[in-house]
Design brief:
Layout (H helix, E strand, L loop, with lengths): L8 H28 L2 E6 L1 H9 L18 H6 L2 E8 L10 H17 L4 E3 L3 H6 L3 E8 L8 H9 L2 E5 L28 H13 L2 E3 L5 H10 L5 E2 L16 H10 L2 E4 L3 H4 L7 H15 L4 E3 L19 H10 L4 H25 L33 E2 L2 E2 L4 H14 L1
Parallel strand pairs: 1-2, 2-4, 3-4, 4-5, 5-6, 7-8, 8-9
Antiparallel strand pairs: 10-11
Helix pairs in contact: 1-12, 6-7, 8-9, 11-12
């Protein structure tokens, strides 16, 4: 608000009205644009909150108002969300144990949330997401440890509706490297994407499944960007030049992403936005400005990471607050065309391009690549071999009443007695 103290009361009133008109105008314009182009957000961890607080018991939850989450139907509607990518995530501590089962349970709860409520719709294609008149739901898997180094498991997830997978979370897999060093799984040097990792990339290209590089190391991301023939996404990452956290994306990788035709969907988590405990909408907008100046607005989306991270900027505390960001970008002279792309059109374009690659590979058979046993060796991984019988006298697990040789000797003994 601009106030000229030296002016008379009339001038003060006029300047105040003009300032208020500008604020109201930007707010109104933001809402109008979001009504025309409802947001598709690239990453949300509501399913994780449902696991933690309710053990996935949907009968105990009112999905219109969830007290232990930043996401519910009422707030999604208030935030003008037209599409949400929900993450099926399980902790890295489940790697080499029951990660596949736990991931299936998270996929199940997302499917139930999105099919048992009339305001939501489960979709599996770019066309379905574009045309939905409800809040369209897309399923992603967050972390390659969820497939237990198995391409058949990856394909079965696809059959269940999964259309995106992050190659890693905060732990390495036997075939890809994480940006985090928190866990000690599968530490190695100079092998950020193994031959099996390349097979995963190729199979995701064949399926039309979006490759998500958020949480991957920069070296793994570079290797994937060179190997993938389909555009990739960073579903919830921000700009390293603004906040130097290794979860963010450096400028050279952003340039490779531009060449790939992919998308970075900006994360709102305060430690990825400002590298501090307090920040606001303006700092989030700084990431958008930097990426736009470097590689163009057509390479940007939104992946706030609500209900995954804890601690968001003032004014962006939950999914109802997205209009505040759009209003801030309008104040920075972002055009309606640029904002339409950021809100939904950029994601739909990348999704459609991944589907086009899939369609070109229709005659390519499913990969039968297997990870070498020694690369994924752990106590829970069985080495399948044909069982060897050590005693031929056993039949169906039961011994005969008396071995044949013993019977023969017993008969001879009886004859001698006679």
């Amino acid at each position: 608000m601009f106030i000229y103290k030296e002016a008379g009361s009339g001038a003060w009133f006029v300047c105040t009205l003009l300032s208020l008109h500008g604020v109201i105008s930007e707010t109104s314009r933001a809402l109008d644009i979001m009504r025309k182009y409802p947001l598709i957000d690239g990453h949300n961890d509501l399913a994780l909150r449902l696991r933690i607080h309710y053990n996935n018991k949907l009968t105990k939850i009112n999905l219109h108002s969830i007290s232990h989450a930043a996401t519910d139907i009422s707030r999604l509607k208030a935030g003008h969300v037209g599409g949400q990518v929900f993450s099926a995530y399980v902790l890295c501590t489940a790697q080499d144990k029951d990660a596949v089962r736990l991931t299936l349970e998270q996929i199940d709860v997302i499917r139930r949330v999105c099919t048992e409520n009339s305001y939501l719709e489960l979709v599996t294609t770019a066309e379905g997401m574009r045309d939905s008149t409800k809040i369209a739901c897309l399923i992603s898997v967050e972390g390659g440890h969820s497939i237990d180094s198995s391409l058949p498991a990856l394909r079965m997830f696809y059959q269940l509706g999964v259309r995106s997978m992050a190659l890693t979370h905060t732990c390495n897999t036997p075939w890809a490297e994480s940006s985090s060093r928190f866990y000690s799984f599968y530490q190695r040097k100079n092998n950020s994407l193994t031959e099996f990792g390349k097979a995963v990339v190729e199979e995701m290209n064949r399926l039309g499944m979006l490759i998500d590089l958020s949480h991957s190391s920069w070296e793994t991301a570079r290797a994937v960007l060179k190997h993938s023939i389909a555009p990739v996404i960073f579903s919830h990452s921000s700009a390293y030049a603004i906040c130097n956290n290794t979860r963010n994306v450096p400028d050279d990788l952003l340039q490779l992403l531009k060449a790939n035709g992919g998308l970075i969907m900006v994360n709102f988590y305060r430690h990825f936005v400002a590298c501090s405990d307090s920040t606001n909408v303006s700092t989030v907008a700084d990431h958008f400005d930097h990426i736009k100046d470097l590689i163009g607005a057509e390479s940007i989306g939104i992946g706030a990471d609500f209900d995954g991270a804890q601690g968001f900027p003032e004014g962006l505390e939950d999914v109802s607050k997205y209009p505040a960001l759009i209003e801030e970008l309008i104040s920075r002279n972002w055009s309606e065309e640029e904002l339409a792309g950021v809100l939904r059109l950029n994601f739909l374009r990348v999704f459609q391009e991944a589907e086009k690659v899939r369609d070109k590979m229709l005659n390519t058979l499913p990969s039968e690549a297997e990870i070498p046993f020694l690369e994924a060796n752990n106590s829970c991984r069985a080495k399948l071999t044909i069982p060897v019988r050590t005693d031929s006298s056993y039949r169906n697990g039961k011994a005969s009443l008396m071995p044949v040789r013993a019977i023969a000797w017993f008969i001879v003994f009886l004859i001698q007695l006679l």
